[in-house]
Amino acid sequence: MAQTITQKILAKSAKRKTVEPGESVWLNVDVLMTHDVCGPPTIGIWKREFGENAKIFDKEKLVIFPDHYIFTENEHANRNINILRDFAKEYDVPNYYDVGSERYKGVCHIALAEEGYNVPGTVLFGSDSHTCTSGAFGMFSTGVGNTDAAFILGTGKIWEKVPESMKFIFDGQMPDYLTAKDLILQILGDITTDGATYRAMEFDGEAVYSLSMEERMTLTNMAIEGGAMSGIIAADSVCEAYVKERTSKPYEIFNSDPDAKYYATYRYDVSKMEPTVAKPHSPDNRDVVRNVAGTKLTKCYIGSCTGGKLTDFAFAAKMLRGREVKVPTFIVPGSTLVDKQLSEETIDGLSYKDIFLNAGCDIAESSCAACLGGPSDTVGRSSDGDIVISTTNRNFPGRMGSKKSEVYLASPLTVAASALTGVITDPRDFL
Amino acid sequence: MEKILEGCAYVLGNNIDTDQIIPAEHLVYSLSDPEEKKKYGEFALSGVPIVQAGLPEGQKPFVNEGEHTSEFSIIIGGSNFGCGSSREHAPFALNVAGVKAIVSESYARIFYRNSVDGGFLVPYETPEKLNDKIKTGDKLTINVSENTLTNVTTGETYALTPLGDVFDIVKAGGIFKYARKNELIA
């Protein structure tokens, strides 16, 4: 039987020849990732269930990135970091990236890629819904809750229902005003927020393979916004080069069989697509930017696992160079490495960081920050009456802070163009 | 588990995401400390915009101010209940507030898994849209073995989709109990 890439990877993990959509299988997990919000309760359940003799299934396969509530005075949030720190010390966890140390990395999904944990052909679970991001590396990755994470922590195994797959093919050459964010917002408008529930979203086509790994990660990152279990892009030479630079772990490249079955196939010509937004209050509330152009804004935000990668800031820097923002604009690097790169990468001799500072942006330290609202002292958090345009992933009521704020999701080009005018602006006006 | 689940209905719309179920700023509390975990009940469904809180009228907070349990223990949702983040704090918060079951047309995958594997509540699917037929405050009973929901207030009975494979985990009370029972773990 013909198999999709997802079936092939899950079959390998389940030590089976083939697996079929709809059947439940027990998977052997290659990496378990957790963070400061879901790590402490996961550890709590693991201790409760496995008792005094609780053992980590494989210390090398556990990765902990504190990233959500880092730069806050909130005592409960800080207590969570302490729980992770104590756990890492007590159990001698090698892959713990402590806050306040040189090892601190920032947002987990970006750090997983940078630190070489994303390996083609493997299976990665994380206690975070955006764990699907890692699928950009030709691997199966998905989010689970604390109980499932605790089960994996103790056993290295978890059950999963083999998903059907949906295929999204992007043909043509990417125009300079379009980014991966526009592509995924287009899809979400077409399939809605539950259009891929319990399925894998597979991305393909020459436009997808023309993208950098960071941009591919934007596509797989927002698969969860369509309800998908996972997003996946088969590994190519670009992916292999990225992985080899960061890890010596063995990898295996899988591809879908040409006659593999899909629940649905969508085909797009990127040369005909336009800059796209998701209007309040849902990631599937799609429109083209020009239809909402002129909407007054109070804040612009560039950051998160979705829109805080180096490529996102490269797009923003191109737009903001030599210009000034009209509304408060927050730059939140997705990782400490991205933060460092903002000082190293230049346009005409000026670093991205200087471009942003000269434009009047606020640059924050790397963390999840206001993407999910967070404690009341979180940088960039939305307040009552705010109208925000953001490169983040969700705009549900209250997601970025106040229930009485409105959030538009858009590409880094659209957000930066809008920052320059104070109203929602099509990036083509400046390109 | 109980054979009949009884309670009053709290009716919500489509796409109730985890930020509405438990806003992210509250995810800092302990889930094991018996006193502190009450905070999750206090703030359960506090992110739902007030006009959509307790349909059809709205304006009805799920938990009254200063309390941590709700007078409503069966939630009637629409499609895609529990979408958004992976936070298990969401079904946990509903459990602390006293929710026994949700009846919805469909669920987001992680919320569904968390509800079942954590043993917090029973996520029933229904082939029929019910959040426009049942009103907040209606008295409901769920017959677990027959997979039916009865609205005692109106006398109507509706079919629930059988839980299938998942019923064994629900009956056991979560993934750990299920795995022990089946000798998957010691």
Q: Can you describe what's shown?
A:
The complex is a heterodimer of chains A (431) and B (186). With 431 residues, chain A is α/β, with parallel strands linked by helices. Chain A has two domains: 5-267, Aconitase, domain 3; 277-425, Aconitase, domain 3 (2-Layer Sandwich), CATH 3.30.499.10. Helix content of chain A is 31%, strand content 18%. In chain A, the strands form six sheets. Chain A has a five-stranded parallel sheet. In chain A, strand 2, helix 2 and strand 3 (62-64) form a beta-alpha-beta unit. In chain A, helix 2 crosses helix 5 (146-155) and helix 6 packs parallel to helix 8 (213-221). The termini of chain A are far apart. The model of chain A has no long low-confidence stretch (mean pLDDT 97). By secondary structure, chain B is an alpha/beta fold. Chain B has a single domain, classed as Alpha-Beta Barrel (Aconitase, domain 4), CATH 3.20.19. In chain B, 22% of the residues lie in helices and 17% in strands. Chain B has six helices and seven strands; from the N terminus they run E-H-H-E-H-E-H-E-E-E-E-H-H. Chain B has helices at residues 18-21, 38-42, 89-96, 109-117, 166-172, 175-181, and strands at residues 4-11, 74-76, 101-104, 122-125, 139-143, 148-151, 156-159. In chain B, helix 5 (166-172) crosses helix 6. The A-B interface holds A 24, 37-38, 41, 44, 48-49, 69, 74, 76-77, 79-80, 126-129, 131, 143-148, 151, 154-155, 159, 193-194, 197-198, 227, 229, 282, 372-376, 394, 396-399, 403 and B 15, 17, 19-20, 23-25, 27-32, 47-49, 79-80, 83-89, 106-110, 113-114, 117-118, 165, 174-176, 179, 184-185.
In short:
The complex is a heterodimer of chains A (about 425) and B (about 190). With about 425 residues, chain A is of the alpha/beta class.
